Amino acid sequence: MRLTVSILLILFLGLSEGYSQGFFNKEKVENNRNYLDQRKWSWGYYLGFNSLDFKIDRIAESEAVLVTKNVGFNVGLIGNYKLNNYLDLRLEPGVIFSNRDLNFTAFGNDDVAALRETKAAYVYVPLVLKFSTKRLNNFKPFVTGGIGIAHNLSSNQDNPDDNSAGQFRMKTTNYFYEVGFGIDFYLEYFKFTPSIKGVFGLSNELIKDNNPDSPWTSNLDEINTRGIFINFTFQ
């Protein structure tokens, strides 16, 4: 909730600043009209934050696995190809750092056995379509949708140890789809874009323990990553 409120506040402040600088005035001179709007190819980078979660499917009814989410960090590059005035195709390779804690409550008061920390460093490469409205002076809202592949550098997939040795393992390669929205602000020397998007896992990341009766994984059917990303792009 705090994260969502913060984003709405940032977008509101951005719009307020845009208004104070004349973004909405009919007489406003359009910044970077030729440089950014007419080029087929453009490049940029982004910085941002994420809050990743797990969607957990269980085989049978049992105590839920609780997920503690922490704020992570994103950084990456953007390659943008202009298809027409309202549609762009983008490649947005980046790195995502996150940390989630899994609490297996069936272990009662044994906190050491019940808690598993799942740190992740994803190399994420999404292919995204960006649908924009008509530019109004120096701002342009848009929505996005895309698919991506991620390589988890911290997956422990090839580790022979499992939860009995304190190691929670996940698959290395995973697939995602994403949807989002944002606003392009055309400033004097560059384009600044705050955006928010949801990312949803399509593949099961769970690797079950070697013991088929493992109290950690025997009742788990599937684990998928999902989360919210807040990015600030500079082009």
TrEMBL record:
Coiled-coil positions: none
UniProt-listed InterPro entries: Beta-barrel_OMP_2 (IPR025665), OMP/PagP_B-barrel (IPR011250)
Family matches, as SUPFAM superfamilies: OMPA-like
Domain Outer membrane protein beta-barrel: 34-205
Pfam families for this protein: OMP_b-brl_2
Descriptive protein name: PorT family protein
Natural source organism: Mesohalobacter halotolerans
